[in-house]
Design goal:
The chain has 384 residues and is of the alpha/beta class. It folds into 2 domains: 150 residues, no CATH class; 206 residues, no CATH class. It has 15 helices and 5 strands.
Amino acid sequence: MNRTTQSRKLGWIFEKNEGGDFKRFNHMNRVSGEFIQFRIPEHQRFPNWNKDKKKLLINSILKNYPIHSIICSKHYEIIDNKVKEYLDIEDGQTRLSILQEYFEGGFADEYGNYFEDLSLSDQRLFGNYEVSIEMIEVEDENEIHEIFDRLQMGQPLRDCDKFWNWKSQPLVKYALELIGTGQLNPYMGTSKFSPQKRDRLSDIVGLLSLIIYWDVTTYEYINNSFKSHFKHIKKELTDLDKEKVNKFLEHYYSIIDNCYEIYPKKLNEKNKKYYNICSDLGLVLFDYFENDHIDLNIKKEMWVNYFVTSRKNRNLTSGKKQLWNDVTGKPNWTQPKYVGCRVNRVYEFNLNLKNNELEKFCEDHNIDLNEVISGSDSDSDSDN
């Protein structure tokens, strides 16, 4: 890998052409049909600094304080039979974007001054501020992703952004394909997914990883974290892997569909987070794979009863009188051992429900329910 460093003035980076367009960097136009030297790669998140943090950055520039260098990867493209070099900003695009936003009059500094309100000397100071740009050149594109991940260590980069960085790899690519079909929308909260709104990506990638590579003896946690599932990102997927995914999703969808057939959604009822692996989805996953000696229809009936009861009783899984009282481990612990304990409690709950002994069960475990459903209400043979 080759590394070179150079200094560039903000005024040069933000220079405009005769038409008034930025020549070298434009934070508002990530995908441009025209050649531009400094680019924001797709794996980068969109800037989300608060106003105070933005103002502090402007103050640092106007006081000529140092800021971190901008790290770019070097690339080439052929235009009109000529090879042109361009730079993908791997670290520092948020800082450059905010500085350009201020330069364009997008917000006021800590004194209420927009850029045009500054004195000419301060405007020149801003334009003459030198930014250190470190450029790296590698032969293997995957090394760029590795560098990006390491640059973000200790930074508030979300898991969904980390997965997005690897979107060309098989597991994440498959997750994006499933999201693109729309089939996940009613169940996994993906209807508003976009390159800018990536929140659900970690949930879907984590779910696929767990389904395809399930081995509870190797898991530290049953969750959707990048740390837990990165080891599977580059593995090629087979038709059998995808069939495994489809079978679980059919099971899970049928539970949710049957739940709302039995107890239709009420006015102002909040949507349950059926995509949350650290909550109910993780329990259903554990039951699906670890209790394979139990018929799927029996499992389905149990989870339908559980979901309907939880919708009728908001405090079923929270508060001082919740279902998890006396269960080993805290309710938010996602180590397999504790997830298994909560699954066993759901089985206990359902058995007492079916035997009309729920009142004593709840009394013994200090569980408070306002409303329950009859154990015979669900149709375990229903396919949805």
